[in-house]
């Protein structure tokens, strides 16, 4: 294994063409530099440098040129490794949870400015049902979450009302005796809203399609597989808003965090999301 300090000395001598100037560059005495070169030559079993007739100018032998080439690469790799370790030490993991039914493109657009402004942040996002995200917050698996919930149901950093509407495919009969529904799984507030509203209105219903995915629910509505409740932001041009069905109260979009203390980087993400969501809603 090569000694990086000796390789650095070799590169300096080759670059300067002089033991004296190389010694000044590495802040060593000339005799120390000469000893380091001899030690390196002994370790490789080759003459690496030769002096000219005046004894003042030094040049690399063929083996010296070859080793100098590799020495530069090894020194660069060593420097890159140190920089990577220093950068890694300054990285702040930021774990964000977002609802399964939140528009991924919209969220990516919101987060792009934060990532540019906070290069120290290592942002990790997970998606899931709001009930799962709250559980992950409590267990410390994520730091911050955007959740759907009942209005005013706990502390939060910011909250926004989320108007909800019934949607169906164009031409779909919503006066059918048993209304087919396209719903998210148990625990979803939209599912709860749909079932409670229909039960209160004494309308018969059945689950015709179920999915964790917003795009899956949207596609099911478009194709006429079922009627669903969605936020205004998720209504597509291929959907028809069903004013014939009983209106549903809005849910709430809330920005919450776990019990652990938040860093300045975490608070920066909260401020970013607060501003971006307020701007887009």
Description:
- InterPro entries: LTTR (IPR050176), LysR_HTH_N (IPR000847), LysR_subst-bd (IPR005119), WH-like_DNA-bd_sf (IPR036388), WH_DNA-bd_sf (IPR036390).
- It comes from Pseudomonas azotoformans.
- Residues 2-59 form the HTH lysR-type domain.
- Keywords: DNA-binding, Transcription, Transcription regulation.
- By secondary structure, the protein is of the alpha/beta class.
- It folds into three domains: 4-85, Winged helix-like DNA-binding domain superfamily/Winged helix DNA-binding domain (Arc Repressor Mutant, subunit A, Orthogonal Bundle); 94-161 and 252-279, D-Maltodextrin-Binding Protein, domain 2; 164-249, 3-Layer(aba) Sandwich (D-Maltodextrin-Binding Protein, domain 2), CATH 3.40.190.10.
- 45% of the residues lie in helices and 23% in strands.
- The chain contains nine helices and twelve strands.
- The protein has a five-stranded mixed sheet with strand order 4-3-5-12-6, sandwiched between helices. The chain has a three-stranded antiparallel sheet with strand order 10-7-11. A two-stranded antiparallel sheet has the order 1-2.
- α5 links the parallel β3 (92-99) and β4 (121-128).
- α1 (4-16) crosses α2, α2 (19-26) crosses α3 (30-44) and α5 packs across α9.
- The chain is rod-shaped, with a radius of gyration of 33 Å.
- The mean pLDDT is 89.
- Indicate how many domains the architecture comprises: 3
Major sheet: arrangement of strands: 4-3-5-12-6
* Order of helix and strand elements from N to C terminus: HHHEEHEHEHEEEEHEHEEEH
Overall helicity:
40-55%
Count the beta strands.
12
Mean pLDDT across the residues is 89
CATH architecture of the largest domain: 3-Layer(aba) Sandwich
Distance between the termini: 61 Å
Taken as a percent bin, the fraction of beta residues is 15-25%
CATH homology group of the largest domain:
Periplasmic binding protein-like II
CATH class type of the largest domain: Alpha Beta
Rg measurement, Å: 33 Å
Largest sheet: 5 strands, mixed
Low-confidence stretches: none
Globally, the shape reads: rod-shaped
Instruction: Label the structural class.
Output: alpha/beta
Continuous helix count: 9
The third-level CATH topology of the largest domain is D-Maltodextrin-Binding Protein, domain 2
């Amino acid at each position: 294994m090569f000694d990086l300090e000796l390789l650095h000395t070799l590169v300096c001598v080759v670059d300067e063409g002089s033991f004296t100037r190389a010694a000044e560059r590495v802040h060593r005495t000339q005799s120390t530099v000469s000893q380091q070169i001899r030690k390196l030559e002994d370790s490789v079993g080759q003459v690496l440098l030769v002096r000219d007739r005046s004894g003042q100018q030094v040049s690399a032998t063929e083996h010296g040129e070859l080793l100098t080439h590799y020495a530069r690469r090894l020194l660069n790799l060593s420097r890159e490794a140190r920089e990577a370790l220093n950068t890694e030490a300054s990285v702040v993991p930021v774990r964000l949870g977002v609802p399964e039914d939140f528009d991924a493109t919209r969220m990516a657009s919101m987060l792009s400015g934060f990532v540019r402004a906070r290069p120290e942040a290592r942002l990790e996002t997970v998606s899931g049902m709001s009930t799962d995200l709250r559980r992950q917050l409590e267990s410390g698996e994520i730091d911050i979450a955007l959740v759907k919930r009942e209005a005013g149901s706990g502390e939060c950093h910011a909250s926004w009302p989320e108007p909800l509407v019934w949607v169906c495919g164009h031409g779909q009969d919503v006066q059918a005796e048993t209304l087919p529904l396209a719903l998210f799984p148990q625990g979803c507030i939209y599912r709860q809203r749909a079932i409670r509203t229909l039960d209160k209105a004494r309308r018969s219903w059945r689950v015709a399609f179920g999915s964790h995915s917003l795009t899956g629910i949207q596609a099911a509505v478009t194709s006429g597989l079922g009627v669903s409740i969605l936020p205004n932001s998720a209504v597509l041009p291929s959907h028809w808003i069903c004013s014939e069905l009983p209106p549903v109260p809005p849910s709430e979009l809330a920005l919450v965090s776990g019990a652990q203390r938040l860093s300045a980087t975490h608070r920066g993400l909260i401020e970013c999301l607060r501003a971006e969501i307020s701007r887009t809603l």
